[in-house]
Write a structure and sequence with these properties.
heterodimer, A: 260 residues, alpha/beta, 6-stranded mixed sheet, 4-stranded antiparallel sheet, 43% helix, globular, B: 278 residues, mainly alpha, 0% strand
Chain lengths: 260, 278
């Protein structure tokens, strides 16, 4: 069953169109990757889907209900189901708040209650950190740890849908794999539907079942990740795949095959 | 690192001067060597060290030390109230301008630019003509004068904080714009505001002295440094110390707060302290 349905969705900043007449759907319990170069509109797209930016034209439905209408009538219900993780771990937590305070925020805001330290500690355990991190300030944690905290913060309200905007691109290569594994694991454990935006085909190839390739605000190709990456039809997709292969080939042929 | 920074001479000298000023001002509440308003016509314009008058007396025989101490209290009073007013209003205005919608943001930013271009002293003169000279007039004038500058200082850094991802995350979990401004942006501007307040304090003391010199501030019997300066300028030939002492007091107070501000600035600077974002 489709959890998210988009029909003829467009978005523009002033007169500059960013999303042009997009239509697609996201199945429940699936993982969708959105790839494309900078400026392709992929980040804007997920911001519209998770309610950070308005639906300007077209139809966007979540669980059969119109997103704009849902946000107007019952914003907390919508936001509790849709959470997002951002790119930069250094800036996704308030430097003046302890990790525990940051983690408590979504529950305070969306469920109108203050979660206990035990509860928050459990979420930290889910993302592979210990409860002792609750007392830390962001500058006392590493990039990978911060990203884990950001993921935990999104999970505290038990969302159905988790959006991730370039969740690994600001991390060291060695940490990227750990965070990706974490995303795969929590998706399995918690039964989340996940949308990952990335410019990195390797990330999408590893985590996502479905992929959408975007360029200049349009979808140029979409389908199951394995077939799109192995047999790309559109020229743009081919160039992305070849570029990724060329980079990986620098390491080894096997690695390249493993990714794609 | 921390030890080296805490030994910053600016901070120490600044804090010492400020402490001296505060101490003198507060002490004047309970004790001054003589009543600052008591006239001693037999001892007019006594030079320093005469009859127990440490810094002499003025042209009506009032003790200079007592008047300077009471003047310190007056300066502090005006500076505290006007700085507090200007910081609160300026920061509120700056946050609104940074966080409001496009229209408010543009309007307030331009309005601030215009207000900064107005000559503050003229605004103060107009206010004084309107309301009559008093400490209140001086405070209102200083607040009106300083608010646009405070707002201007806050707008840029507030916009920088608003552009960070934790703000977007807060929106994603349903926090309102005003919650974000007060609970996320304001604390992150803390160090900036502390430094700004300290610099403004120096400005407020100087401005209060200037206004009371022009006769727009506190009226007798409340002594104020600017007024002492004004009253003694006519006898500068006979008793130059009467001009020098209040002048030195004003200078030291302003220097103290400026040094304190500078010291705090280098101590709280983002390049030195990781927890600060602005």
């Amino acid at each position: 069953m489709a959890l998210v349905e988009i029909n003829a969705l467009s978005f523009s900043y002033g007169r500059a169109p960013v999303l042009k007449d997009l239509s697609f759907s996201i199945e429940q319990d699936s993982t969708l990757g959105i790839v494309g170069e900078s400026g392709s509109g992929k980040s804007t797209l997920i911001r519209v889907l998770c309610g950070l930016m308005p639906v300007q034209s077209g139809i966007a439905r979540y669980d059969g209900r119109d997103i704009s209408e849902w946000l107007d009538r019952e914003p907390r219900g919508f936001r509790r189901r849709n959470q997002i993780v951002f790119q930069s771990p250094a800036s996704s937590l308030d430097p003046r708040m302890r990790v525990g305070q940051s983690l408590a925020e979504p529950t305070k805001s969306l469920e109108r209650r203050t979660p206990s330290d035990e509860e928050l500690g459990q979420w930290l355990t889910v993302v592979g950190l210990g409860p002792e991190a609750l007392q830390r300030y962001p500058h006392q944690l590493s990039g990978g740890q911060l990203q884990r905290v950001a993921i935990a913060r999104a999970l505290t309200v038990n969302p159905t849908m988790l959006y991730a905007d370039e969740p690994t691109s600001a991390l060291d290569v060695s940490i990227q794999a750990q965070v990706l594994n974490l995303l795969i694991e929590i998706r399995r454990r918690l039964g989340l539907t996940m949308v990952i935006v990335s410019h990195d085909l390797a990330v999408v190839g590893r985590v996502c079942e479905q992929v959408i390739v975007m360029r200049n605000g349009e979808i140029v190709e979409s389908g199951p990740t394995a077939s799109v990456l192995r047999y790309p039809e559109h020229e743009y997709t081919k160039s992305l795949v070849n570029a990724a292969r060329a980079v990986s080939l620098g390491a080894s042929h096997d690695a390249a095959d493993a990714i794609i | 690192m921390a030890a080296r920074r805490s030994r910053s001479p600016q901070l120490i000298v600044g804090a010492a001067l400020v402490a001296l000023l505060v101490l003198a001002g507060l002490l004047s509440l309970v004790w001054t060597p003589y009543d600052p308003a008591a006239l001693d016509v037999t001892n007019k314009m006594a030079p320093p060290w005469t009859d127990g008058h440490l810094l002499g007396t003025d042209q009506l025989g009032r003790d200079v030390v007592a008047q300077l101490m009471a003047g310190a209290l007056n300066s502090l009073l005006v500076a505290v109230l006007s700085t507090a007013g200007a910081v609160v209003l300026g920061v509120a205005l700056g946050l609104t301008a940074a966080g409001g919608g496009r229209f408010w943001s543009d309007t307030l930013t331009r309005a601030t630019d215009v207000a900064i271009a107005l000559p503050g002293i003229l605004v103060a003169l107009v206010l004084a003509t309107f309301f009559g000279p008093s400490n209140t007039t001086a405070i209102v004038a200083i607040v009106v004068w300083f608010v646009p500058g405070a707002a201007r200082i806050v707008i840029g850094p507030a916009r920088q904080v608003l552009a960070r991802e934790f703000v977007e995350a807060a929106m994603a979990y349903g926090r309102s714009r005003s919650f974000v401004l007060f609970r996320h942006v304001l604390p992150n501007l803390g160090p900036l505001i502390i430094v700004m307040a300290s610099m403004m304090f120096a400005g407020a003391i100087l401005t209060e002295a200037a206004l009371s010199y022009l006769g727009l501030g506190a009226q007798r019997p409340t002594p104020s440094w600017g007024r002492l300066l004004f009253e003694s300028q006519s006898v500068i030939g006979q008793a130059p110390s009467l001009v020098v002492f209040p002048g030195v007091c004003i200078m030291l107070a302003v220097l103290g707060f400026n040094l304190l501000g500078d010291g705090l600035r280098s101590r709280l600077d983002p390049r030195h302290a990781r927890e600060v974002v602005v």
